[in-house]
Amino acid sequence: MRKVLSRPWAITTLVAALAAAGLGMYWFQPWKLWQDETLHEALPEATAPTTPGGTSTPTPPRILATGDLISHEHTTSGTAKLVRLGDGSHVVRLEGLDTSSGPDLRVWLTDAPVREGRAGWFVFDDGKHLSLGKLKGNKGDQNYPLPTGTDPADYTSVTIWCDRFDVSFGAAELTQA
Fold first, then answer.
1. To 5 degrees, how large is the angle CA 160–CA 73–CA 35?
2. DSSP characters for 128-166?
3. How far is it, in rounded angstroms, from Cα 66 to Cα 68?
4. Which of 27, 39, 49, 119 fits 115 for a cystine, CB–CB 3.0-4.6 Å?
5. CA dihedral sign of residues 39, 43, 49, 50
6. Are 171 and 158 spatial neighbours (Cβ–Cβ below 8 Å)?
């Protein structure tokens, strides 16, 4: 063994193998498959502007569209809802979310159709999509506000999108409530 390791090609090969293993670990982050982060956010409270008489009546949140998450690259379940809040703003709410953790997961609102199986893994970045931010946790209930000026009618689905590998972990077709 000592004789082999004293040769320059053996050292070069060993260094290259270690570098490749390190880069692979960084890129894939396989340990995240066993790490869960659970979050239970409440739906934002209803607010209402004060009228000239000094009174206000909060408007309750209204569900505009909803859909069940289906699995794509990773087993995913839960419900996605598009909700209008009392102040007129909108959020995508994920309830009962259960998916794998992964590197660089995002919540996207898209205009793509949701397809079952492998055919649905890669379609969401083909058309119009809006990143609502990093996935806060791979389990639980979460809210993702839509930027001001976004027309929710332009979007028909929600996906848990892995930005690093350009693949959907799971998605929901939004149907009007």
1. 70
2. -EEEEEE-S-SEEEEEEEPPTT--GGG--EEEEEETTTT
3. 7
4. 119
5. negative
6. yes
| Mean per-residue pLDDT, 39-53 | 75
Question: What distance in Å separates the CA atoms of residue 112 and residue 33, rounded to the nearest whole number?
Answer: 27
Please answer whether residues 128 and 174 qualify as being in contact, where contact means their C-beta atoms are separated by less than 8 angstroms: no
pLDDT band for 19, please (50, 70, 90 cuts): confident
Residue with tokens 């389990």, as numbered in its chain: 139
* β partners of residue 80: 67, 94
Pairing of strands 167-173, 77-84: unpaired
Residue type, 117: G
Ranges of H-type helices in 69-164: none
Measure the CA–CA gap between 157 and 16, rounded to whole angstroms: 43
State percent of the chain over pLDDT 70: 79
Q: What pLDDT shows up at residue 8?
A: 73
Intra-chain end-to-end CA distance of the chain, in Å: 69
Residue 133 tokens read as: 């931010």
Q: Is the CB of residue 133 less than 8 Å from the CB of residue 123?
A: no
pTM: 0.78
Q: Which residues contact 173 (CB under 8 A, 6 or more apart)?
A: 67, 113, 114, 156, 157
